[in-house]
Amino acid sequence: MIEMKNVIKKYANGVIAANGIDVKINQGEFVYVVGPSGAGKSTFIKMMHREEKPTQGTILINGVNLAKLKNSKVPLLRRNMGVVFQDFKLLPTLTVYENVAFALEVIEENPKLIKKRVMEVLGLVGLKHKARMLPTELSGGEQQRVSIARSIVNSPKLVIADEPTGNLDPETSWEIMNIFEEINNRGTTIVMATHNKEIVNTIRHRVIAIEGGRIVRDEQRGDYGYEG
Predict the structure, then answer these.
(1) Where's the ABC transporter domain (predicted)?
(2) Is 170 exposed, middle or buried (0-12, 13-18, 19+ CB in 10 A)?
């Protein structure tokens, strides 16, 4: 599903955030991306949904080369993946329902299907009863659940998460992880950058460790491998 070949990313300030990355991720996998701050994890994640373009190399998502993808085609690419951020990125003037529905409205999906699908995913994340509330009326954990619901409402094959539990308390973090586990069990590929050592060491999945823009470790059912 995902393949990177000799990927290099050099920023204008001279920082090399990806330095010869080669990796394959198969459909249905759950992959943690770990490493110290500034190691290149966020760049690794951002290149997958074309927020950043590689300076050199090939990135294939379902056979599409992101390095050569025209900017006009990027929205179509992103319709087939979900992205979850640390800071939620919800639209503050829209209700929970409207935030999730928006992802389907922009692709002009049938209104009846939108209502059915939005309520399904809100049920999955346990927020049906808060569908009419605004993001400001929710806790941080609830806002992150809305963000997850929005990311999966169009049934993507891939969900990319960048520190999705970074702003949450431990109990809420486990609740969010249970949702990701359920999504993965339904066949969705998940790639998650995280600093949460306890989660990585408890809910075992493949671990890709990045340091200095390079993959230094790639283990099935790996551990976090860093202090803190």
Answers:
(1) 2-227
(2) exposed
H or E element at residue 120: helix 111-124
The backbone region for 98, taken as left when phi is positive above 0, alpha when psi lies in -120 to 50, beta otherwise, is alpha
Residue pair 122/96 in contact by the 8 Å Cβ criterion: yes
Spacing of C-alpha 150 from chain mean position: 12
pLDDT digits (tens, 9 = 90+) for 18-62: 999 999 999 999 999 999 988 999 999 999 999 999 999 999 998
The torsion angles phi and psi of 192, rounded to 5 degrees, stand at -130, 120
Nearest Cα to Cα of residue 99 among 148, 161, 51: 148
Q: Tokens 């339904």 correspond to what residue?
A: 186
Residue 212 CA to residue 221 CA, distance in Å, equals: 23
Q: What are the sequence ranges of the domains in the chain? A: 25-54+69-80+156-228, 89-155
Q: Model pTM?
A: 0.92
What strands lie across the sheet with 16-25, from one edge to the other?
Answer: 16-25, 2-10, 56-61, 64-65
CATH 3.40.50.300 fits 25-54+69-80+156-228, yes or no: yes
b/e for 140-161, b at 16 or more Cβ within 10 A?
A: ebbbbbbbbbbbbbbebebbbb
